[in-house]
Prior knowledge:
Elements: H1 8-20, E1 25-28, E2 48-52, E3 57-61, H2 71-74, H3 86-103, E4 107-111, H4 128-139, H5 144-158, E5 162-164, E6 173-177, E7 180-186, H6 193-206, E8 215-222, H7 226-229, H8 234-239, E9 242-247, E10 253-255
Parallel strand pairs: 3-4, 7-8, 8-9
Antiparallel strand pairs: 1-2, 2-3, 5-6, 6-7, 9-10
Helix pairs in contact: 1-4
Amino acid sequence: MGRRDDSDEAYVVGLCNELLRETASPQHTFDWLLGDPGQSGRRAKLPVDAFWPGHQLVVEYREPQHDQPMPHFDKPDKLTVSGVHRGEQRALYDARREAEIPAHGLRLVVIRPADLDADGRGRLRRNREADLTALRKILARGSDEDRVTDAFRTWLLGEGWTPLDPTDRWSDLEAVRGDERLICEAKGHTSERGTDADIAYGQLLRRMTSQELTTRYALVVPSSSVKAVERVPGHIRRLLRIDVYEVTDDDLVRRLRA
């Protein structure tokens, strides 16, 4: 197996492939994403770590050398075509990607070792289950899931709830009101509504660590996913203390009857 195929970057891209149900184009280049001109005036295309055309998504996996000085990688005594050493050029090109990719209608998600299960040197431990859970949330950034979560948070505030830092760091939202506690899992628009609904129920089940009857669980979904989440019968949802909330396209929230 080649070095790149066994790298942390390749591992992360492989997990993203699984979550997105699409195989990425690795080290993809675009005609409009270019480096600085060399002596000949030619500008090389800047690759991105991975591109999923079906999702119009670019992922960049930024290892520690992208964020902190590392002489081994930076080669401070050698200038690049940009007139700066390699470390400064890397930061320059990263900023160019961050500006140009959204400007061309694509979504950019940047992932760092600290976002996953990594050691102090930034090497991934490759804890598959934990990394998949973290990546699922990271890939949802800037997506419809954020809209659904924000709309539900606003609704909770209006209903007298106080959002707080989740006890389980993988929960989307947690809130208290008096002696009541609500642990929430949110989903956005998706082409795999049934599968994502099943995953959401499974995520809530794993968070049912409290036996307090005042703790309830919320599954918060857009209108397009209501039929999928209602496949679990109401009497089962009542037994598990799971409430389902719909967030409409204009961000209105309503609790579904179990």
